[in-house]
Amino acid sequence: MATRLSEKGSALYFYGVSRAGVRKAPTLRGIDAIGKVETRECSGLTCWFSQVDGEEFGARLEQNMENLEWLANASVHHQRVVGSIAGAADILPARFGTVFLGERSMEGHVAERKASLAAALKRIEGASEWGIKVFAETSAPAVPEPPTSGTDYLWKKREQLRQSTHPAAPAELEEMKAELDKGAVASVIVHGKTPQPGLVWQASFLIKRQREKAFHDVLRKFASRMAEARIETSGPWPPYSFAGVPETASPGVPKRAQSARNARPVAATKHKVSKKKTRASRPRPHR
Prior knowledge:
Layout: E1 10-19, E2 38-42, E3 45-53, H1 55-59, H2 61-65, H3 68-86, E4 91-93, E5 99-100, H4 103-112, H5 114-124, E6 127-136, H6 150-165, H7 173-182, E7 186-189, E8 199-208, H8 212-225, E9 229-237, E10 269-273, E11 278-281
Antiparallel strand pairs: 1-3, 1-4, 1-5, 2-3, 6-8, 6-9, 7-8, 9-10, 10-11
C-alpha cells in the first residue's frame, strides 16, 4: 500500500489499474528512476503509481514534453514499468503522462469509472496486444518506353511517383484480417501514424495467450501467399489499444500528455513474417 502524501510538491504518476489481489507485485522504480512503484486498492481495483516531483510532472509537464531528450528518457522508463507490471498482472495501461495531485483524486477518478474499467479488465484478461504491419515489396519496375511527347512524359512521371508513394495493398489483405479476427478478442485498424516507405496496412489485435500460436500460423500462411508483400509483427504488448480508459480530464488531474499507444515496453520481442521465413530481431522500442 502507498503511504499518504505529505511532502510538499509531490504528485502521483499513474501507470494503470488491474484486478485486486495481485499475488506478488514486482519491485520497480518509477518513471523518474527514483520513486518506488506502489499499489493501492481503489474501489476494489488495484492502482499502480509512483510518487514524482509535482513541478516536473505537473506544472512543467507540457514544456518537458517538447524536450525530446526528456521525453525519450521518460517514455523508456514508462515502457519498462508498464511492461514489468504486465508480466505480473493483466493491466489496463493509463496514458503516458497521466498524473494525479494526490491519492484522493486518483481514487475518485477510478471510482467514477469502476464499471467501465471492470468491463475492460474482463475483456483483456489473459490477452496481449500484437501489432501487424504489411509492406508492399514490388519488383524492379520495367524500363519505360521513351515518351512520345511532353504530355506523355509528364503523365509517365506522375504514374511512377504515384506507384512509389502509394503502393497497392495485397489482394489477400481483407481475407487475412477476417481470419485473424476469428481468433482475436478484438482488433483495430491503425490510421494516422507516421508514414513508412511501402506501408499499406497496419492493425492491432487483442489475442488470448493460448491462441498466439494459431495467430502466428495464420500470418505465416498468408505471408507465403503474398508474393510481393512483407508482414511484420510486434508484441506481445500490454493492451494499450484496447484499454478503454477514458481520456477526459478529472478534477485534480493535470493534462494527459500523448497517447500511451506510442509507449511500448522495450522488453517485448519483434519479428518479421515474410514469404520465405520468420526472422527474430533484437528487442527494441516500437516506433
